[in-house]
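Teaching assistant's notes for section 4

Start the section by putting this record on the projector. Ask students to predict, before seeing the second block, whether Branched-chain amino acid ABC transporter permease will look compact or extended. Collect guesses on the board.
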Amino acid sequence: MKLFEGKRGWTLLFVLGLVFPFVATNDYMLTVMSTAYIFALATVGLNLITGYTGQFNLAHGSFMAVGAYTVGILTVDHQVPFWLAFIASGVVAAVLGALVGLVSLRLRGHYFSIFTLCVGYIMFLVIEKWDGLTHGVADIIGIPAPSGFGLVSFESPRALYYLVFAFLVLGVWLMHRIVNSLLGRTFMAIRNSDGLAQSLGINLMRNKVLAFVLSVVYAGLAGGLYAGAVRFLGPDLAGVEHTFDMTMYMLVGGIGTLAGPLLGALIIPWLTQYLQFLQEYRFVVFGPILILLVIFLPNGIVGLYLARKVRRSQRSAPASGMAARRPQPTGGDGHA
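Reveal the predicted structure now:
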């Protein structure tokens, strides 16, 4: 079975997502999985700019916080309906992303990453210190749940789970369309070589900014869903550690692949749930694990699978070629 590519593998993942609420033993498991889906959606966006375009954005978690705070401020302070605030979370993230991208993407490599790290820290300080807008360290509480449609309500954990799951499916489908389009191949050409892409007539700045904006829109919308699911917000959401978490998800699953960040974002949260007794030593434990993954599994789970698949096809190719050249006896009906 093709687990990481093709319709069969994606159908399996989709079915598992649909039946999970029926095998979950309590609402806490649904909450953990819903939160994992939200961060998976944000990680899919980070993978676009990092895995497919080759620009490591260390402010990605802060853009997720911007989307969350957009929903929190509009719904709590200005009584804006949730879905209008949710749309605004993507719009605000896109506008801010365009402004940051136009400045930061003039830099390359680690200079770009350091610049976005500084931008992310500025966002964190704004959220923490601007009490009149963001409530500061007092947090935003009382964020309404996503409003339902007709008889459908999203107040229960199961209904909220399916809502988040639907957005994740839609987000992954849209990302699949993007990366397999001419635009996606343009992003990958930029990742492979700026100079070669430019020689082919690709406008580097325009396409880098577009990739950056698309990626932070994913982060902003994920933040909007997070606000509606958790119902309260604090400045810690803008911390760089969330970007590092998403980076770990990409590395574990397979950076630059579509299924990799998704798998990583689903595996790691459940692993941390079972290792909660090590929570105080989180970075002491996961730091060495991440280093070992980079050394011995640099392409992640999906990358390892694809590499083995290529090796198997290479080993079988010479044998099949020899069989094709060897004379074959034929029967009276003309079949070998």
